[in-house]
Amino acid sequence: MKTILLLRHAKSAWGSPDLTDHDRPLNRRGERAAKAMAQYMADHCPRPDLILCSTATRTRQTLAPLLKRLEAPAPPVALENGLYLASDAALLARLRALPEDVGTVLLIGHNEGIGLLASALAGSGPPDLLRAVHEKYPTGALAVLRAPIDRWRELAAGAAELRAAELQAFVRPRDLVEA
């Protein structure tokens, strides 16, 4: 079994026209959401063996509070430019290339890719959670999936019913804090 934690960056600021999209920081609401999600993950999720994070400022700022809450030493973090605005297919390919000694991975990225990947991987789970993950993947949301695979290259999406992951949790910042 492999565990996949898919975290969309928290709410970002749009107020600085001189910043590129890649360099946009979190706004105050996003900072609160990132802290709340970090606490939730530290308390309720399996510890990642590896963290994959887009190089965008808002994804790195979403990761920062989690690193403070995880027991030392922190898991390895790979900041990867290829995750910036990556498609679901690109994200799936990245997961399929993971080393086999990684049992739990945290991937921090952007929509549409993160939401589409979560929807494609989630083949089973509580109906209300499945409905929510298919409906909308808001900023700061986390999907926790368990895949019945031994090797990452076996990870499949869509019609591969025997390899479909189970959606164990889908948590949005609004479930944890008042925005």
Description of the structure:
There is one protein chain. The mean pLDDT is 93. The protein has a 7-stranded mixed sheet. The chain starts with a strand and ends in an 8-residue tail after the last strand. The chain has a single domain (2-101, 114-175), classed as Rossmann fold, CATH 3.40.50.1240. α1 crosses α2 (57-69) and α3 (88-96) crosses α4. The chain contains 5 helices and 7 strands. It has 179 residues and is an alpha/beta fold. It has helices at 28-44, 57-69, 88-96, 113-121, 127-135, and strands at 2-8, 50-54, 77-80, 104-109, 122-124, 142-147, 165-171.
- Number of extended strands: 7
Cα-based radius of gyration, to the nearest Å = 15 Å
| CATH superfamily annotation | Phosphoglycerate mutase-like
DSSP helix fraction: 25-40%
CATH architecture: 3-Layer(aba) Sandwich
List the uncertain runs. Answer: none
Which CATH top level class fits? Alpha Beta
Q: What is the count of helical runs? A: 5
Question: Kindly, what is the distance between the CA atoms of the first and last residues, rounded to a whole number of angstroms?
Answer: 35 Å
Query: What's the SSE pattern?
Result: EHEHEHEHEHEE
Kindly identify the CATH topology.
Rossmann fold
Structural category is alpha/beta
Q: What's the shape? A: globular
